[in-house]
Specification:
By secondary structure, the chain is an all-alpha fold. It has 12 helices and no strands. Helix content is 73%, strand content 0%. The longest helix is centred in the C-terminal third of the chain and has 41 residues. It holds the Pfam family BPD_transp_1.
Length: 280
């Protein structure tokens, strides 16, 4: 029987984690419960009946605004940002495996946007577009603004991945006659695929819920975060909570989907490695 006494640090970290989870998910639990208010319910407890009334009311444009279109814009913008973030981060990770002149300047210039206030970046991009006679829009100026937020995270992740990546795998592939493209396609890419999935998740999720960098760059059409913010000023029914529940559950669905894809790829790679071992 294991009677080893756990150190004090374990209990301190456990308590901190519990407090963190309560602080993070406590407000959502209140929103989740209040979204099921009855038709005559209000914005506070206690519940006045239980129903799905506010979820059906959510999609009525005259009641809550253009929720469907704003969701579509945020979703498409998140996909665009995700694709560019994955591709550029992968190329940057490959490029920085070798030293070249100006590498430090490019690196610090890329991550500098993480320390600049988001609203300043949004304002600056909006002003630049106006100076060039271009109308800010969610698919152009907001797209660029979101990349200043997602690319540094993607690049840093890929730097960490390739910093631990042993070049011996590539050397072995080349010794067996593989070309540079074959080495990348059949050796490098499968090994870093889980990390690329993580970069994709970062890119999509950071863009999907970004508010500050969208505020001055989305033009006349709102993304979902801007639509929710607008609803807080003119909606006085639990439909706002219903929207919060739907969007949060959608975010969890996206996260679980990416995690599932990563687990499937990992199991497939382990199975292939086991089959290869049996063949030997």
């Amino acid at each position: 029987m294991n009677t080893e006494k756990r150190p004090l640090e374990f209990y301190v970290l456990t308590a901190f984690f519990i407090i963190f989870v309560l602080f993070l998910y406590g407000p959502f639990s209140a929103i989740f419960i209040l979204s099921f208010q009855g038709p005559d319910g209000g914005l506070t407890f206690p519940l006045n009946g239980v129903s799905l009334h506010w979820f059906s009311n959510l999609f009525q444009r005259q009641a809550v605004g253009d929720f469907g279109a704003s969701f579509e814009r945020s979703f498409l913008l998140g996909l665009m940002v995700m694709v560019v973030t994955v591709v550029v981060s992968l190329l940057a990770g490959l490029a920085f495996r070798r030293k070249f002149r100006g590498a430090s300047v490019i690196f610090y210039g890329t991550v500098a946007s993480l320390v600049v206030p988001s609203i300043i970046i949004s304002l600056g991009i909006g002003v630049v577009f106006q100076q060039f006679g271009l109308a800010p829009a969610w698919y152009s100026s907001a797209f660029g603004a979101h990349l200043t937020w997602t690319l540094p995270f993607g690049v840093l992740i890929m730097f960490a991945v390739f910093n631990r990546f042993s070049p011996s795998y590539e050397e072995a592939a080349r010794d067996l006659g593989a070309s540079s493209w074959q080495t990348f396609r059949y050796v490098v890419l499968p090994m870093i695929a889980p990390s690329l999935i993580g970069v994709a998740l970062f890119g999509f999720s950071l863009s999907y819920d970004e508010f500050a960098r969208t505020l001055m760059t989305s033009g006349s059409f709102n993304t979902l975060p801007l639509e929710i913010y607008g609803m807080t000023t003119n909606v006085t029914t639990p439909v706002l909570y219903a929207l919060g529940t739907v969007t949060t559950l959608f975010s969890f669905t996206i996260i679980l989907t990416f995690v599932g894809i990563g687990m499937i790829m990992r199991r497939r790679r382990m199975a292939e490695g086991s089959d290869a071992g049996k063949g030997i």
